[in-house]
Amino acid sequence: MEVFEKIKQLIIDRNSFVLEAGAGSGKTYALIQTLNYLLQSKSKTLKYNNQKIVCITYTNVAKNQIIERIQNNPLVIVSTIHEFLWDCIKSFNKQLVIEFDNVNTDRHNEKPHKIALLDLQEEIDTVEYDDWVFSDFEQGKVGHDDLILLSKKMFRANELLTSIIAAKYPYIFIDEYQDTAEDTVISLIDYLLERNKDRLIIGFYGDSYQKIYDTGIGSLQEYVDKDKITLITKQENYRSSEEVIKLLNNVRDNIKQEIPESKDTVLGSVEFINCENYPPRADKQKITDYEKSLIPIKNSNYDFVKKTLEDKGWNFGKNSDDKILIIANSRVSQRGGFGKLYKVYSKRYGQMANDKLLKRDHPLTTLFVGTIDKKTSIEREIGIENLIKFYQKRDYGNLISFLKKNSALSTNLKHHKDKKEITDKIDELIKIRKSKTVKDVLDFVESKGLIVFNQGTKKLIEKAKINLDDINDEDEKKKIIKDTAFFNTLISLQYKEVINLFKHSQNENVFSTKHGTKGEEYRNVLVIIDDTSWKQMYNFQNFFNNTEEKPERKLRSKNLFYVSCSRAKEKLVVLGLSEMETQAMKAIRSWFGENNVSTIGNP
Ligand SMILES: Nc1ncnc2c1ncn2[C@@H]1O[C@H](COP(=O)(O)OP(=O)(O)OP(=O)(O)O)[C@@H](O)[C@H]1O
To answer: Of 185, 339, 346, 455, whose Cβ has the fewest other Cβ atoms within 10 Å?
Structure first.
């Protein structure tokens, strides 16, 4: 039976389910089919009962795709898990205060020195959701992470609440379920579903092998074993060529994929390239020094492979068919000439540095190089570097509208003198940014009125001026110290790094394989791995030769490798920039095929 037919039957029989299927198997496609089926068959009842279907997604790509494919039907609420949970619990204020007090007690017990034990039932009247990472208990503001725990407590303690949710939302679907927090799964299955089996269906769609976030549940097998939900799997891979599918089947052990009969065959290939042209480490040379010394050779290996592929017709230009997926962000930044900038973000934001810097989801990054509108994916050209770009391209229309929107200057440029005043300032800016620090440039653009800082930047500047003795809350203090250290180190860097970041962001042929790439697909994909670039997080050699001692790192490396390789529709090349040793190469040979492994050796 076709998978969608199975889902239909489960819905008719009123069974909740999990669709576990590999990359490219059409999970998002099946989810949209499910929504359309319900809209066709149940719209009247839903409207009559004032009910809605809920569909939870994690990425904007998926969200927009779903909204578009169901033609914006108002009977379906497409939202993030945080939006949904908050919407469920927000009107139960009295209980919210009680449970938020319990969250505070839990957090205090976990970290007694960091989180003060408060009597919130005495101190606050309401709880608000602050879409910020941390909670501010005293102010009654629940943060991102605590909202998940708070919701679990609310669901557990409150049968009326779960019964109201089930009455309002008889169908709840979760895309990419593997990245859902365990506490949320408990809220949804153990409390909401178990108490309302007769009137609620929950469908999970995802792939345990594509879990990217450490906090995700990964697998729902435990719930399947307890008969709480029914497992359906899907064998097809609609995306990739036979060669790529074969490799993916070798990497994973719970599903063997095949090409659907209906699909035309495409000519595909897989290849692994190992770099063996590095000199050995000198006696007593420090590892970090040794690794640094290899960077130029690594860069030339990368350039060589890229060029070879381009000669074969691969196209890495903007919006082109093919993609380079670089797992190591620090490598991208070093190559791009903004390694120090990356390091500063990485120190402050850890795993999130990628989003903050490369995806430009941070007020300072936006001030420097603009950003991308998350909802529409359209470039927002609002950074200092955009101003210079418009000026240098003599794009005066955009230049004026930029100044109108972002500067403190008058754009009523009737006289030559007015124009000259502005062009002089920009000329000066162009000059100083090549040789001076970030601080010099920020001071210049602000004092000359060229750009009014955004709120986030203003806040950071204010924070750096706070006298820490005035702050009692230890958590708050720590955060201020971190933010200030981040800000001060960042502004002491050479502004040149920002120029290089901008160049990189405009080129866009290089991506890092994080959450954003799931659901995406390209004709040909070049995956770059380098074990020296993010050592705590990933080690591919240990994954290949099966010697990894840290289970989380193994899982992370395996899943990231699987997600990246599975984006390719036709051809896949994996370049191992850090040399893989013999046992790892043995596994690689058996996965990729003896003839599909090559090396870059000494000339
Ligand atoms: N039943 C189908 N018939 C034809 N094409 C399909 C079918 N299902 C999916 N596809 C196509 O296959 C590709 C992969 O589908 P989709 O993105 O839904 O897979 P997925 O399982 O969500 O992928 P991933 O988890 O790897 O991101 C898409 O191009 C989609 O249009």
So the answer is: 455
